[in-house]
């Protein structure tokens, strides 16, 4: 099952994030030998502080068996700031509708070989489907992903071959790295589904995930998320703009309306101070957690 964790709900799933960072350490620091920062058994880098979205695959016990990170290309991202040698002199990709997908990995220790539900192949395809469908629902048209040649072959075998590549291969640990481009089209998703035989909805919704695997939140939300107690860090009441944004989120009746409200928050956040932005993210997380 696939769970999406982002800036708005990450405080609810700290246990899953810990497991995910540990998996990344085993794969990228251990198996692949990449020059990554591993501390306390977890692989975390500067880009994890930029509020990316994580598409995480879980087994029935809530263990992380796969994961991938999605980050906007309009700001700092790995291809522009770490793997710039891949670009070979070309300018970095900058587009609101093209996101970078990195740290794609599957737990080969917890999973078996074959195509059954607990296999590497199943988890890989499920993560591909989840990441493509999440991107499509978020208005992302294309994905650029830094991968190794093994992952490139996996994509091709899964009928999910890149439609193009960027720059050239460069050395990275035990294997070279390259950058591939994938569209987030319905046709691509259907091809991966047909190859894998996965026809059901792969996502677990936040409420179900919280019930089964969530972290207890130490700082509960106040009864009224719009009350003065939920003011900004400077203890001033929220502005009319902030109240309007929260009202739009609070009044959303389905996932499509919630996502539209969140996109509006993101688009208008450049008019707010850093303290207001922090308070808005926290308040939005509380509204979502309460089932708004």
Describe the structure.
With 292 residues, the protein is an alpha+beta fold. The protein folds into 2 domains: 212 residues, Gcn5-related N-acetyltransferase (GNAT) (Aminopeptidase), CATH 3.40.630.30; 62 residues, no CATH class. Helix content is 39%, strand content 19%. The chain has 10 helices and 9 strands. The strands form 2 sheets. It has a 7-stranded mixed beta sheet with strand order 1-4-5-6-7-9-8. Helix 4 packs antiparallel against helix 6. The longest helix has 18 residues. About 7% of the residues have low confidence.
Biggest sheet character: 7 strands, mixed
Rounded radius of gyration (Å): 19 Å
Strand content: 15-25%
Shape: globular
Q: Looking at this structure, what is the CATH superfamily of the largest domain?
A: Gcn5-related N-acetyltransferase (GNAT)
Please state the second-level CATH architecture of the largest domain: 3-Layer(aba) Sandwich
Count helical runs. 10
* Derived structural class: alpha+beta
How many strands? 9
Spatial strand sequence of the major β-sheet: 1-4-5-6-7-9-8
How many domains? The number is 2
Bin the helical content.
25-40%
Task: Using the coordinates shown, work out and report the CATH topology of the largest domain.
Answer: Aminopeptidase
Give the termini distance in whole angstroms. 23 Å
């Amino acid at each position: 099952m696939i769970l999406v964790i982002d800036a708005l709900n990450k405080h609810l799933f700290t246990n899953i994030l810990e497991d995910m960072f540990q998996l990344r350490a085993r794969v990228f620091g251990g198996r692949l030998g990449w020059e990554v920062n591993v501390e306390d058994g977890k692989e975390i880098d500067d880009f994890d502080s930029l509020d990316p979205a994580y598409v995480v695959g879980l087994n029935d016990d809530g263990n992380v068996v796969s994961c991938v990170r999605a980050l906007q290309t309009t700001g700092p991202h790995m291809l522009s700031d770490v793997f710039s040698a891949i670009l070979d002199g070309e300018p970095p990709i900058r587009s609101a509708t093209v996101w970078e997908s990195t740290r794609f990995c599957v737990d080969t220790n917890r999973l078996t070989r074959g195509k059954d539900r607990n296999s590497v192949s199943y988890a890989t395809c499920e993560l591909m489907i989840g990441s493509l469908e999440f991107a499509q629902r978020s208005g992302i048209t294309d994905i650029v992903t830094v991968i190794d040649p093994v992952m490139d072959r996996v994509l091709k075998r899964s009928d999910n071959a890149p439609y193009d590549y960027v720059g050239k291969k460069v050395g990275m640990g035990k294997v070279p790295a390259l950058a591939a481009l994938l569209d987030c089209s319905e046709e691509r998703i259907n091809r991966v589904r047909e190859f894998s035989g996965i026809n059901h909805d792969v996502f677990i919704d936040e409420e179900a995930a919280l019930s089964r695997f969530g972290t207890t939140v130490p700082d509960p939300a106040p009864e009224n998320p719009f009350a003065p107690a939920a003011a900004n860090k400077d203890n001033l009441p929220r502005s009319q703009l902030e109240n309007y944004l929260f009202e739009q989120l609070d009044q959303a009746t389905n996932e499509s309306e919630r996502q539209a409200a969140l996109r509006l928050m993101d688009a208008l956040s450049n008019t707010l101070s850093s303290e207001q932005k922090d308070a808005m993210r926290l308040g939005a997380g509380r509204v979502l957690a309460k089932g708004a």
